[in-house]
Design goal:
Helix content of chain B: over 70%
Order of helices and strands of chain B: HHHHHHHHHHHHH
CATH class of chain B: Mainly Alpha
CATH superfamily of chain B: MetI-like
Distance between the termini of chain B: 30 Å
Number of helices of chain B: 13
Helix content of chain C: over 70%
Number of domains of chain B: 1
Strand content of chain C: under 5%
Distance between the termini of chain C: 15 Å
CATH architecture of chain B: Orthogonal Bundle
Radius of gyration of chain B: 22 Å
Oligomer: heterotrimer
Shape of chain B: elongated
Order of helices and strands of chain C: HHHHHHHHHHHHHHH
């Protein structure tokens, strides 16, 4: 396999808060290949959005404690200076946010905001050139009247339109990697589908890799080639999408799939009993242990990541026994 | 869920007394400083005859032997041209200032609250009339209105308080109007109406408690600003009349003797500053604590 | 939304309010006090004199008639005759207006030019050392009465250091520039008299500072709060995620949304300054409208009081209207209304 564009190794992230230290991410390891579409799935509050922000260095330096490596195209983003990160943000790595209407500045026109991003990273050198670029880019996201949209303010446009503007902004400087934080979640389902299709097409066109964070397994199946499953700040399983959804190996992944309502009417969705752990004092071993039906004493230690098939790994002691046997 | 349970005010008042929030308040050290300042000033004012070193100097009196003396160990704030101890006069001045603050708000707040409640609840023409009147009062810069009133009435402590109350009530009307207007559409108000509660009941039992957080915060902040306004009027000679000590008029007296007898102006001035600062810090702390908009 | 129609509607609302204000002031001047004539003449006047004076003032007529007479006088620019200076009130006010206007104008410039940048700096470094210092300073500005500032400034800069004078708008030896706007700072520049400009500047700095310190404090706190709120918004996180520098975010992307609510309060703040002008002008002997008003009050000059209050209220209403119009124009959400896609 070619060298990955994003390689996260052994990432630990904690926040110093009023009540104590919150251990949000533990030993996260994640790889995204060039041009690959990777999903990161997990429930709300599991830390997946925090991970995206950690990659771009958007977290408050005063309160965060981060160790490990985030290798992007040869640079370790954990150790990189703010000025270096600023050069990367929006040009080589860009981010698509959850709610497009509130992520765009309400008192600036779309033209102002797009040209700012273009000029900032030198993709065009003059305002005219930037505007021309913005206009043609908006056509690519199926906006028929780009001039009108450019002259508008975000509140004048629909959620779906703003979403397409945001995609345009994310891709306009032709990044190598796009981070997507639950795109389309704030919009209705048909728009979300349209968004995913657009993103697939456009990122393939420019050869950008995508790391998409979502809590929706349908989105994973629809969009991604490879998927990481996160629970309470730890990666519990990862593999090719079809393979993993077909035969999930981790109890949590299996439970997630069982919790999805189905149209075949055969069974009701089964919720997962229990609640997420307290990040201030998380379980020392497997973080899913308190809720896992297969919990055993071996789970008291951090579970090893084991290969169960090609490119498919699980962090669960259940499979250690199988492998050993 | 019963209308009672749905009403957030019942929950928030209980929260106020809960330990966790006292803990949060006390962590904010500036609020504690404010509380301390307010308590000190209030106690000093209440027990002025016992706290002041020369209580007799509060009223008229001459002691030319000790007149116009700079700050010394005997007179921490110096003496004025009649020989009276400035420190004692400042402490008694706090008495006047605090009473003005309390009385003015005791007049202005009920008027403003009632106006706001009625306008926000009944809407339509009631709102139009009441809020137009409020707007008219708010169109005159506050101090100017008070000055105009005092201009036509004889300057005295009583008239000064009336004048300040007249300029203050519209702010409460507007605050309560905005809150009431929002709340009238809320579920528990509609539920109470459907259950047959009288308007008075709704206004005073369902809506008013929800205004308490904003009201308390605003009142605390306002005590300080009323003191400031009273001092401004006193500075112009329109408030309390001599020889009663009032911080503003003391600054004015001292101003005539600048720069030589600087302590006559500076210490009463600092006294005003300390009082307003204390209430302000306390009010800010309350606002952060209760997370309200005033 | 139709901008001209909105402005016309606002104008009518303003006029209606002004009518209300005139009724209020009239009520205060005629209805509240027991006997305005007696008050004006003092306790030593005889009953006969008071009665004659009452007729002279038109107080024997029924109230609505008095009010109508009063309004018709207003429309002709006649604010009556001062019972103290015996000169037409309108003339005295016109003489004092430029001085007060210039003072308030300079104080407003200080407020905007110092308050807003300080607020932005405080918000950008929130919870840091700069923030705490700025906030403390702003708080001190707000809680200290303007007359205390006036006295302190006078003591330090004039009496103690001797740097700045406190004798009116210009030194006795300097004659005022030819009057174009009535503002010495502007007129002296227009007439090419730099030495007059400097002299006027010297004289206005202390009173303008005393007048503006409370406003600067308030503006700083408000700007800081609004900018800090903008900083917590998703669109600022997005700006950072696209590599926009901290400085550009502070001066542009966080400031502009925050300016709009700050601007709204500006009008109220000018009201506060108009009120405090009475105090500051008295301390510095500034020959403005406000000082005239104070003298009118101290001498129970009813016409003078009423005239001053009306002019100030009208001025304030006009300022408010301008500020509202500015906010409407600046905030695209209001200007363009519900023209959704």
């Amino acid at each position: 396999m070619t060298a990955p564009i994003l390689d996260i190794r052994g990432l630990d992230l904690s926040f110093d808060m009023f009540e104590g230290r919150s251990h949000v991410l533990r030993q996260v390891a994640l790889t995204v290949g060039a041009g690959q579409r990777v999903a990161l799935v997990g429930e709300s509050g599991c830390g997946k959005s925090v991970l995206l922000r950690a990659i771009l260095g958007l977290l408050d330096r005063r309160k965060r404690v981060m160790t490990g490596e985030i290798r992007f195209d040869g640079t370790d983003l954990v150790r990189e200076r703010e000025s270096g990160l600023r050069a990367i943000r929006g040009s080589r790595i860009s981010m698509i946010f959850q709610d497009p209407s509130s992520s765009l500045n309400p008192v600036f026109t779309i033209a102002d905001q797009l040209t700012e991003v273009i000029l900032r990273h030198g993709t065009a050198k003059t305002t005219q050139a930037a505007l021309a670029l913005a206009t043609s880019a908006l056509r690519l996201v199926a906006i028929d009247e780009p001039e009108r949209v450019l002259a508008s303010y975000p509140f004048q446009l629909s959620g779906g339109m703003n979403q397409r503007v945001m995609i345009t902004m994310a891709l306009i400087n032709r990044p190598r990697l796009v981070l997507a934080d639950e795109p389309g979640t704030a919009l209705d389902v048909t728009i979300q589908e349209q968004t995913l299709r657009l993103m697939r097409r456009l990122t393939t066109d420019i050869g950008a890799a995508v790391l998409m964070v979502t809590h929706n397994l349908g989105v994973v199946r629809e969009f991604a080639e490879y998927v990481y499953v996160m629970y309470a700040g730890t990666i519990v399983e990862h593999g090719p999408v079809d393979e993993l959804l077909e035969s999930p190996r981790h109890p949590y992944t299996a439970a997630l799939l069982a919790a999805v309502p189905r149209l075949d009417g055969h069974s009701l969705p089964r919720p997962i009993a229990g609640t997420v752990p307290n990040f201030l004092s998380p379980p020392p071993g497997c973080r899913f242990q308190p809720r896992c039906p297969h919990a055993r004493p071996a789970c008291d230690a951090p579970p090893p990541m084991l290969t169960v098939a090609a490119g498919h790994e699980v962090a669960c002691v259940l499979h250690a026994e199988k492998v050993a046997a | 869920m019963s209308p009672r349970r749905m009403n957030p005010a019942r929950i928030s008042l209980r929260r106020l007394l809960h330990n966790r929030h006292w803990y949060r308040f006390s962590r904010n050290s500036l609020s504690l400083v404010g509380l301390l300042m307010v308590l000190t000033i209030t106690l000093a004012a209440l027990f002025a005859p016992w706290v002041a070193p020369y209580p007799g100097n509060a009223g008229p009196g001459v002691d030319f032997a000790h007149a116009s003396q700079p700050p010394s160990r005997a007179h921490w704030f110096g003496t004025d041209i009649s020989g009276r101890d400035e420190l004692s006069r400042v402490i008694f001045g706090y008495r006047v200032s605090l009473s003005v603050g309390v009385i003015v708000l005791a007049i202005a707040v009920p008027i403003g609250v009632v106006v706001g409640l009625l306008a926000g609840y009944y809407r339509d023409w009631v709102e139009m009339v009441l809020m137009r009147v409020t707007d008219v009062f708010l169109s005159v810069p506050p101090l100017v209105l008070a000055l105009a009133i005092l201009g036509v009435l004889a300057p005295s402590l009583r008239n000064a308080m009336l004048a300040i109350a007249a300029m203050w009530w519209p702010w409460y009307a507007r605050l309560i109007f905005n809150i009431t207007r929002t709340l009238t559409g809320q579920g528990y108000v509609v539920a109470a109406k459907v259950l047959g509660a009288s308007d008075a009941h709704i206004l005073f039992v369902e809506i008013l408690p929800n205004c308490m957080a904003s009201l308390l915060t605003k009142i605390t902040l306002d005590i300080g600003f009323v003191i400031l306004t009273a001092a401004s009027l006193g500075f112009l000679g329109l408030g309390v009349q001599a020889p009663t000590p009032e911080l503003g008029s003391m600054v004015a007296e001292g101003a005539q003797n600048l720069p030589d007898l600087w302590w006559m102006s500076v210490f009463p001035g600092l006294g005003i500053l300390v009082a307003v600062l204390g209430f302000n810090l306390l009010g800010d702390g309350l606002r952060d604590l209760m997370d309200v908009e005033v | 939304m139709n901008l001209p129609r909105y402005l016309v509607r606002r104008l009518f609302a303003c006029l209606a309010t002004f009518v209300g204000v005139s009724i209020l002031i009239f009520g205060i001047a005629r209805v509240i006090p027991g006997d305005p004539a007696r008050i004006a003449l003092g306790p030593t006047a005889t009953d006969e004199q008071v009665r004659e004076f009452r007729i002279q003032l038109g107080l024997d007529q029924p109230l609505p008639q008095q009010y109508a007479h009063y309004v018709s006088g207003l429309l002709h620019g006649d604010l009556g005759v001062s019972l103290y200076t015996n000169a037409p009130v309108a003339r005295d006010l016109r003489a004092g207006f430029p001085a007060t206007f210039e003072l308030v104008l300079v104080a407003t410039l200080f407020m905007v030019g110092i308050g807003i940048p300080l607020g932005v700096i405080a918000a950008r470094h929130r919870d840091g050392a700069a923030d705490n210092v700025i906030r403390l300073g702003a708080l001190l500005g707000v809680v200290t009465p303007s007359f205390v500032w006036a006295v302190l400034l006078m003591l330090v800069f004039s009496d103690y250091l001797g740097w700045l004078p406190i004798d009116g708008r210009l030194s006795e030896t300097v004659s005022p520039p030819p009057s174009v706007t009535g503002l010495y700072l502007v007129d002296s520049l227009l007439a090419g008299q730099p030495h007059v400009f400097l002299n006027a500047l010297e004289h206005i700095i202390l009173p303008a500072t005393a007048l503006s310190l409370a406003s600067i404090g308030q503006t700083t706190r408000l700007t800081r709060a609004n900018v800090a709120e903008a900083y917590a918004s998703p669109y600022i996180e997005m700006a950072r995620a696209y590599g926009i520098s901290g400085r550009r975010i502070a001066s542009r992307y966080a400031l502009r949304p925050a300016l709009i609510p700050t601007l709204t309060i500006l009008g109220l703040d000018i009201a506060a300054k108009l009120g405090n002008a009475f105090l500051v002008e008295t301390v510095f002997g500034w020959p403005g409208m406000a000082q005239y008003g104070v003298q009118a009050i101290l001498h129970k000059d009813l016409n003078g009081i009423v005239g001053t209050v009306l002019v100030i209220a009208a001025f304030f209403l006009v300022i408010n209207m301008i500020v509202d119009a500015a906010v409407t124009v600046l905030d695209p959400r209001i200007r363009l209304g519900a023209q959704g896609a």
